Description:
By secondary structure, the chain is mainly α. It is built from 14 helices and no strands. It has a domain at 23-108 and 115-162. It has helices at 8-28, 30-55, 60-108, 118-144, 147-161, 164-171, 176-213, 219-229, 235-252, 254-280, 288-302, 310-322, 328-333, 337-343. The radius of gyration is 23 Å and the shape is globular. The mean pLDDT is 75.
Amino acid sequence: MNTSTISTPAKVLIYSTAAVLLTLGMKAISSILMPVFFSIFSYLIFAPLVRWLMRKRVPGKISVFLVILFFIFVFVGTAFLFASSLLQLSGRIPNYENQLTNILNSISIYLPEAGVSVESILRDIATFAFNISGDIISGALNAGSTIALIVITTTFLLLDAAGTQERVKKEAGDQPAHISRFTELSKTVINYMLLRTETNLLGGIGTAILLFIGGIDFAVLWGLLFFLFGYIPYLGFYLAAIPPMLLGLFKYGVIGALGVLVGITIINALVENVIFPSLAGKGLKLSPTIVFLSLFYWSFVLGAAGALIAVPLTIVVKIVLESSEETRLIAKLMESSGTRDQDE
């Protein structure tokens, strides 16, 4: 079929139908796709470390072995810290509930009477926020429960990475365009994952130190939460800020909650508006609207943990769309307006 003879409305219908079918297909096999995607992004994060060790004249297989050990140590250590902290937190929940009830009772006398209890509204808001946070954490841990599959897949990817550049160079003469696209895809996604991980780590450490100095319970846990939710665009900060704010409210009152909010907001502003843009430059060309919508799309397709990898998956989709003349316009519309103006 000659696609040039197909009318624009027909193309829109065909592409829309294909997108819906692809979405439903991915959702049906999300339990398989999630560990595969986590394996790929784990590879993207740790592959530069393997190449760095190889440049230090460490043999390829030994480099992969050392990196895999480091990967397992990081994952198991993080999971253990999360689990132990959550167990301790669950033991204090009845005490926190009593404190929340006392606070709500103390402020309810200053609020006008209404048909709906202010206490129930605030309690529902807090419960909703905790439930969302819990769903995302449990989704990530459930994906990590297939740790054996993730580690094995990542290991094979890292072992294969050692000889990839040589094989690519041998084939470059026959397919330069395809090699160029693959190189662009790899660099863009790897750079984003590395920079996002580095800036999230700085933000998480800063948050943990701030909360520890302020005497907030489980400061390290909230720092890890800030690091993890940093991968979620726009909403991640607010979800990560609610639990330590509540603990600040319990310990110091309203002033404590506001102090926690102000401190975390300053750290988040430095990470998102100063550190990350200065490192990433103009590499991330996605429109803020597309980034926000991708959060809900990948959460629908892959579950709550899909929110953690929504942006890199959307970058991959954009680059794939750019590889074809027929879909290049769609990829262009996914870019931020500033980027399009500069290109024009």
